[in-house]
Q: What sequence folds into this?
């Protein structure tokens, strides 16, 4: 399931060319990931209290169109799982007219905060904590 967060580009986020600073695209993506977890019933404090925290292992950003101050965008977020300790994160930043401004793809995991190692079943762990696991692309276990 794909989740969305709406954001308005703020003036202080612009670079010297007057468009959104490249690093802010990643901040928008992270904001959408945390909002997805919160909407699923796994706010940051609940996740950390369970002894794990999310880690981004790899990120690729394709910048497709510039964003300027005042532009309103929708930031999507979807988790995809396979077997193993990692999971995929697919995101887009889309302008109001439907133009895709950026595509963000990544590889993530859940870090055991005591051992500092990735846990074996991130989907299962998220499902066990979530009130709405379907938002996370997992079924309640």
A:
């Amino acid at each position: 399931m794909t989740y969305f967060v709406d954001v308005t580009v703020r003036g202080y986020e612009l670079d010297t060319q007057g468009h959104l600073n490249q690093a802010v695209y990643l901040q928008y993506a992270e904001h959408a990931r945390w909002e997805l977890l919160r909407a699923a019933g796994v706010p940051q404090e609940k996740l950390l209290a369970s002894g794990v925290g999310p880690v981004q292992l790899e990120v690729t950003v394709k910048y497709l169109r510039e964003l300027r101050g005042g532009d309103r965008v929708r930031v999507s977020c979807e988790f995809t799982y396979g077997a193993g300790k990692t999971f995929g994160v697919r995101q887009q930043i889309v302008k109001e007219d439907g133009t895709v401004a950026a595509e963000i793809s990544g590889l993530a995991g859940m870090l055991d905060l005591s051992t500092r190692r990735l846990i074996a079943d991130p989907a299962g762990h998220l499902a066990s904590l979530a009130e709405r696991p379907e938002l996370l692309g997992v079924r309640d276990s």
In short: Helices lie at 22-39, 44-49, 122-129.
